[in-house]
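Give me the fold.
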Amino acid sequence: MSEERKTIYLCLAHMSDEGWEQKYVKEAFDTNWVVPMGPNVNAFEKDLEAFVNGRADGREPLDRKVVCLSAGTAAVHLALIGAGVKAGDEVLVQSYTFCASSHPITYLGAHPVFVGSEPETWNMDPELLEKAIVDRKEKTGKYPKAIVPVALYGMPYHIDKILAIAEKYGIPVVEDAAEGMGSRFDGQVLGTFGKYGVLSFNGNKMITTSGGGALICRSAEDANEIMWYATQARDAYPYYQHTAIGYNYRMSNVCAGIGRGQMTVLDAHIEHHRHVQKLYEELLADVPGVHIHKQPSDPRFDANFWLCAATLDTSVRIVGQENAYKEVIKTAVGGAAGVIHAVDSATTDCQPNENVEALRVFMLSKKIEARPTWKPMHKQPVYAGAPVYTNGIEEDLFKVGFCLPAGPYVTDDDVRYIVDCIKEAVVK
């Protein structure tokens, strides 16, 4: 009897073969450093600094500082504070992204202004960005306080163009590289270009600390300020005195132990994801109507391919398509252990095409996780009425896009099986 096939997930956490993660976690328990500070936190920050400051072409290393935090979302939040964002301000943020890119703006009482995507990288369109800046100045009398581009699925954004625009108008850039750990532009790690750079170590990211994130800062002074806010913003008195609102955002020493171990496999993980992407490109090349998302031919772009994304032509018919969106689903796709808010309708005013949804369901029946791409934030009900500057590209991509498994546990045979299942799903 053949062994039952296990579900192929998008990106599962993968520990080092040597068990470094367990070693460092055990040290935390053995020494009673089970608090949001300690030797593992300090060492993990140094390991991250060594990684992000290195340049692929051997140029002089950078001198960025890293602060480890409880989540990537916390990193976005503190970066916005560091950039001077306050209640009533506007922040320009990529619309095609996960909600953690925009929600922290609202934590501060500020207002997100969404910027659409360009078709090459699927990331923030520099032309729309400048249009938004000029228009917001005309409408509000002041410039937005920050710009937040996002490395969607690990794809680098046009950071050279974005930085030039940011400098022209004097607006700081907060790079959301949560999905782009190890992605580079012109040999330089994403997250090191702007005033701040956000990293995420959530359970399905390139490396994990179970939960957690980090903020890349341009100077020790900036890092110290972020550290202060992350540890409840306490003033230097022999008792607790506060002149600002702080947060309990420091990373646990236990979680940092996992991160230290994960740094030993980071390069291997990145290389694996790139290998899987290349294999998808080869195997899907002759599948009509299915198009794997590739990075630009410009050699400066070096994506980590955290997830491999693709699009499905509207003309392609999928097995079971006639049943798509006919029933209200009971579980969410992705998310936190199925914790969802019940809904009354099976459809919304902006959703993947029926053939994309049918493909998701078909692949699930084959024990393959295939997820829709992020729904643009300006189409989310929670942001109804928010300003948006778009050519509609991200909306069109959301309707036809889907993500395929790419994590360290995905083998070459898995990729071949996934592609075979896609071919099987297509109605001839």
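The chain is about 35% helix and 10% strand.
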